[in-house]
Amino acid sequence: MSSNNDVFSDIISKMTEIALADGKITEEEQELLASAQVNLLMYDEALAKALEDGIIDQDELELLEGFKEQIIQDAILVSEISQGISEDELRILDALIHLVRGSSPDME
Fold this sequence. Notes:
With about 110 residues, the chain is mainly alpha-helical. The protein has one domain. About 75% of the residues lie in helices and about 0% in strands. It is built from 4 helices and no strands. It has helices spanning about 1-20, 25-50, 60-80, 85-100. The mean pLDDT is about 85.
């Protein structure tokens, strides 16, 4: 599981790096980071359970893919609860979406 923990740690580190780009992490950004971290830990648990038998079957794969989309939707919801999504939050969300889906974020 350490490789998955490394991946999730890298995602949180990248999101934190983006949040700190302007020198501060706002309360809204902190809430977004915390939500993503909790959801990634829950995904890790679901992944570990799916791997118990050494095989991820189609049902487990669909469940895990759904979990990824839920991580993204929860992050968007957390961001929208405040007074809209700030530019920094949008960059953090972009990184989260790309990293969770396994692609590189569009960095300027």
